[in-house]
Design brief:
This protein has 104 residues and is mostly helical. Helix 3 links the parallel strand 1 and strand 2. It starts with a helix and ends with a helix.
C-alpha cells in the first residue's frame, strides 16, 4: 500500500474535476463508433498518444480519433493506460517533438 501513496494523492487532487471529466467523456466510451460531428470544430494541431501495452480497443480508438481529427498519432513503447499518472516523463519526448513541429 505504501507504493500507492503518491498516486493516491494525485487522484485525490484531481477528484474535484471528476464530474466535469465524466461529462466531457459522455458518449465516447459506450462502444459506439466515433463520429466526426463532435470533432468538426477542432482546428488546432493535435497529438493523440496511446501506450503500446494499452488494450486493443484503446489502440483502435486512438487510431480512429486521430483519423477523424487529422491528428498526429503516436504509440509510446512500453506504456499503458496509467502511464500519464504513473510515469508522466515517458510522454515528454513525444510532446516536445510535437510542439517543436507545431512551432516551426
Amino acid at each position: 500500500m505504501r507504493l500507492m501513496i503518491g498516486p493516491w494523492r494525485s487522484m485525490v487532487a484531481m477528484a474535484r474535476t471528476t464530474v466535469y471529466d465524466t461529462r466531457l467523456c459522455a458518449g465516447l466510451q459506450d462502444g459506439e463508433p466515433l463520429t466526426g460531428e463532435r470533432w468538426s470544430r477542432l482546428r488546432a494541431p493535435s497529438l493523440v498518444l496511446v501506450g503500446s501495452k494499452s488494450e486493443p480497443f484503446v489502440q483502435s480508438g486512438t487510431r480512429e480519433l486521430s483519423s477523424l481529427i487529422g491528428a498526429r498519432s503516436e504509440s509510446i513503447e512500453g506504456a499503458h493506460h496509467a502511464t500519464p499518472m504513473m510515469k508522466p516523463a515517458a510522454l515528454i519526448p513525444s510532446i516536445v517533438s510535437f510542439l517543436g513541429e507545431v512551432r516551426s
